[in-house]
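REVIEWER CHECKLIST
Item 1: Sequence provided? yes
Item 2: Single chain? yes
Item 3: Sequence as submitted:
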Amino acid sequence: MASNGIGVSRARRLFSITPSILIFCFFFVAVCWVVSAEDRKPTEPTVDRTSIIIKAWRSSVWVNEKETFRWTPSISFLVNGPISAGSQLYVEYTIQPGKTWLTYNCDTGEISADNYWTLSECRSTDDKSFTNYVGSVNFSIKIKNELENTDKVLFAGKFKVKKNNLPPEQASLEYYVDYDWMMPIGLLTYTKMERMGGGGWYDTDSANPVITMWFPGDGANRGEPVAYLFYNGKKVGSSTDTDNGTTRTHIGINDLDSAGHTYRCYEFIIGKVCVYEKHLTANNLADWFHMDKNPGDYEVKVLWNGKLCRYAKFAVGPDGKIVDNGIATANNLNVRNFVPFSGNWTDTVFIIPVKVISNDGLIWDQNAWKLEALFGGPLKGFNPPQ
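Item 4: Structure as written out by the authors:
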């Protein structure tokens, strides 16, 4: 009996301190969670590769009473924070190996780790920066800081400048940056639905699927393409007004349609479809199609002037989430929670291979993606559908 008494006494003493232990453990876990969250925050800036756009900025000079056109690179891109005080973004271009052709600074601001810095256009205005060179150009986006004694490369890539064969009256458009590699590369994400109230806010409880694709031409003489989403062979939504969807034009590159060397980025926001939705009744979306409740294969079909021109597919897993094909992660795209072209907030971005069925008669290099995709060569794990 004595042994039982001792056992009970010890048990009571242990039980009496359990609440204190629980409080300590809760406090310890909370502190660890906060510290862990801080540790997970990025400590270095990165360039979102999907945001980089390079154009051939053209200018003219008179030589022997004849107007001659040249070009200089103009670049825009998005930098994920943090960017510390005293930092300076700049870009270097190289034509000949080992010899810098052009260097100039870009507007730079101090931002936190959970923010981003957007460069809408960065270029040199010096007449000496213009050239008539055509061919491959290497470039590096860098950041330096005199206060920290650092100078780092954020991204290094390459692009190709070509020359159109044009009549004299169109000579100002003869130089262009080749973006044929973008044709088979699509982006899949979702935009959090905006609820208007006061200044407006994004509802994190619901999201529309968004697909971004590239097309040749400036769109002046062609209608906008329209995307349709299929599940088990049945249309569930589209970017048409009828389905409360939207087709948006975001990026136009170069200024020449007839030669096929103009490019345009279209974003298809699929209406009548939710990637997820947590408050069906409150948001009046009970009659919409819900991807998180319908796992399986999905197809994207795009019509351009009434003809099928693009095809892509993706899947939703048993957990109700879009299946990650791993391409974006494998290629270090550095895409966070912001879609540069559309200005939409999201949680993730996927790369989806796109089958280019037709380009409305405009010619393009079908093998360009193998050498120049996203300014860095072929993408790991990427193969366009045949």
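Item 5: Key structural point noted by reviewer: Residues 1-19, 21-38, 195-202 have pLDDT under 50 and may be disordered.
Item 6: Recommendation: ____
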